[in-house]
Amino acid sequence: MTKNTKGESVTLVGTPCHIIAAEKMDHYPEILGDSPVEFKLGLFCMENFSHSYLKEFLKQENIEIDDVNQFRVEKGHLWAHLKDGDVFKVPLSKAKVCMRKNCQVCMDYTSELADLSVGSVGSAPGWSTVIARTEKGLKTLNKAESKGYIETKPMEQSGIVLLENLANKKKKENKEEIKKRESVARPVLYRRYINDTEFREEVSSCQFNDLKADVVDVGSCVLCGACYYVCPENIISIEDRKPQLKGTCPPDCNLCYVACPRTYLSQEVLHRDLDQKPLGDYLKIVSARADGVDGQDGGVATAILNFILDENTTDEVIVVDKMDDNPWKPEAILTSQVEDVKKAAGTKYSAAPVFKVLKNEDSKKEVS
Ligand code: SF4
Ligand code: SF4
Ligand code: SF4
């Protein structure tokens, strides 16, 4: 695989499905080459919206998306805080028409395969919940605290219970949807039980057309951009809502099918035991806050990223910002600049193909 990152190491900030893609790419270096993602900072995510559907939905309520200052998903509602101070709220059951179909088969609320997971749920206002899952994640959490980037305190038991309940709700509801889809021959491949040996056999002759049939056309694509990134022929485009093929695949290539987080996931990548654990496996869970940093998560994700860049834990980070010329349209950027990280703080609630920036040198910010 050709890597266009000049060998730089990267921290990925992403939704649980992005983190699964990074984990999968890390698991098959002999097929995909070495992954540049060295550190995975996962976010909590209940669902995501299609930017164009959301824009249209708001328009029907006489709201221009440009007039929205902040979106939040809380207490069963989508909240749009408008720039003029008004607040528009709509039950999630109604906003569901804007939800991406892939989110309805997603079983991970807290980024169970991340090094560190961060989200606002479970902690008091102004604080975030941080879950350290790996030794690398725990070390980063402890060092970020000892160097004054964040402060932490033990989680209240009631906060953990709330978080577990929400995670269990997502797993339960979406398991039903998965069953429903499987029963009408609309496969949800990533939920099939398979081991690494079987995985290699299954995917050996699968190419983009199979990816399209098994993932994109059945509403499973999470729009992560992993297929675009690994394609050695550069014949996948991912400009709009789904990846498309723009050329002819050589006979022996299957890289996009291997890398996609919504084709088969072997037990070695994602063990199904995690279905029984609402928050997945972890080493430590705390409440944390970061003084002087804005952001929906209490600024904690931003502060940890600042620490990662200051300490050179990785050379660059991938964060999702909003496009300047298309309000609330998310855009992934690869940067080593703390200011870019601060500017990108806050949840966007729409999907962005985060892996795309690893290949696109033009989208990289200048490093001074
Ligand atoms: S598939 Fe949807 S709900 Fe699941 S992590 Fe991705 S964006 Fe969030
Ligand atoms: S060449 Fe074809 S099969 Fe290979 S990664 Fe690109 S699109 Fe997929
Ligand atoms: S088809 Fe491509 S963009 Fe969609 S989930 Fe798979 S790898 Fe990601």
UniProtKB/TrEMBL annotation:
Protein keywords: Iron, Iron-sulfur, Metal-binding
Say yes or no: keyword Iron-sulfur present.
yes
Q: Does this UniProt record's set of keywords contain Metal-binding?
A: yes
Q: Cite the Pfam families for this sequence.
A: Fer4 (PF00037), FrhB_FdhB_C (PF04432), FrhB_FdhB_N (PF04422)
Gene Ontology MF, one: iron-sulfur cluster binding
> Any idea where the 4Fe-4S ferredoxin-type domain is?
212-241
- Which InterPro entries does this chain map to? 4Fe4S_Fe-S-bd, 4Fe4S_Fe_S_CS, Co_F420_Hydgase/DH_bsu_N, FRHB/FDHB/HCAR-like, FrhB_FdhB_C
Q: Which Gene3D superfamilies match?
A: 3.30.70.20
Entry protein name: Hydrogenase
Organism expressing this protein natively: Methanobacterium subterraneum
